[in-house]
Every structure is written in C-alpha cells, then in structure tokens.
Design a protein that fits this description.
alpha+beta; five-stranded antiparallel β-sheet; four-stranded mixed β-sheet; 8 helices; 21% strand
Amino acid sequence: MKITRLDLDGIGSPRGLAERIHEIEELPLAVPLEELCAALDIVSIRRTETASFEAALITDAVKSSGDILLSINSPPLRQRFSLAHELGHFLIEAHRPREGRPMECQSGDFHMLNSRDKDRGRRIEAEANSFAAHLLMPAKRIRQFLGQHGTSLETLVSIAAQFAVSKEAMARALVEAAHDPVAVILSKNGEVMRFYRHEEFPFLSIAKGEAVIFESVSGGSLQPGVCSEEVEVEPDTWLAEREAEHVLVFTEQSLGQNDGYAMTLLQAELDEQ
C-alpha cells in the first residue's frame, strides 16, 4: 500500500480519517485490515487467550508504532471490527494511553455510539467505533447497494458478507447511511436487546429488555437464516400514538438467527406536512 500516516496528519475526525484512507487507497469491499495496519505503523497483530479484554492497543506516548492484541475467543468478524477499532485508537490523535498502560477495550465498548458523551472513556470508544464503521462500511458504498437492491434484510445480509462484517455492524451502518427512515431491532428469546434508528425515524415505544410486540412479525419464530416477508403493520405496533399519527406506511421484516436471536427491520413513510 502507498498510504502512510503522514497522509492523515492533521485530520481529527474519526470519519474524516476513514474517508481519507479510502480516497488514497482503492480498497476492496472487504478491507484488507492487516495490510493496512502494517502500512500505518502497526508492527504486530497478535491473537491471544484472554478473558480480561476483547482487544487492546499497546503504544508509547507519542505513538511511534503500535501493537494490537485480539481475543482469540472472539468470532472472526468481531475480531475484524475490533482490529479496525484499535487502529482508530492509534490514528486518532487525542486517544493516548495513560501512564504507558495498554488501551484495553471490553466487549461493551464496541456498542458505544455517542461521540459527544461527557465521559472521556465512553467518548473515545464511540469515536473508535465511528472510525471502524466508516473504514469497513463506507456510507457511499452502502447507498450504492441500497439503490440497486432496495432496503431489506436480504440486502443487509448480502452486503455484510461482502464487506466481511457482522450483520449487527452492518445494521448500524445501514441505518446511518440510508436516505429513508429505518430502524433495526435486535432481540433474543423475544426480548429487545438493542436497537438502531435513523435520525428521522420516529421514536420507538419499546425499550431494552421489554418483550417484542406479540402482534408483530417479530413476535413469531423464524428458522435461523430465514427472512420473513416484508409486511405492512399498524404504526402503533411499534410507536407511541402521537408518533404513529405522522406515519403513512409502516413495514416490518424479520430475520431468524441462531440461539434465539432475531433482527427486525422497520421502515416508515412519513407524512411531511
């Protein structure tokens, strides 16, 4: 690769860093992370048996070079995102180790999304996640797929495989990149775990830990890997009455996954008046 860290000098934005990398290098859909890390002064990537962290960056105070550790027990696609996340810590100027200690990241850190959080620890994890997401799943490329194939769980599954990322990571990126209001609900054994919503999508009436609405498609059971049909449902199935009043058409589609997990895609056509 021709890229060096000098090409990224002065870029403070996590998204800006990722976009600059893509401007310089014509990267394939599945970004060759280990090759990219080597070009950007990561001297080693080691997979190790550990229960104390998901991934870690070892570097000095001036970040002359870096070493990345990954938990060997994590699934391969999670390791890819973790590797991109640690590269983000290394490249983002403000992310520096304290007192020479490794920057260790736990599994929960990879769900941090608010880069404006007042807590410094949560904020820098969110920034590293933003860098990793935009490096591995550029919004421009996602929109190209959505334009060609439409917004559906089948499209999400297909592009996640082509980008070599997990379906959940792609769900977050797709929600952010989509032009239209969409949301994705992640559930396990009929209970909401997490959800991601487009900034224009109405607020959901369901919260983490609550049961998925019985009347919805998601209330049923699907075999792993099987998508339901996209169906139109009443908006107040998922939305508060006041929010539902502004929705013209509301659709839902679900994907069965292993071990009781499921993913649900919601799309809303809004009354613009």
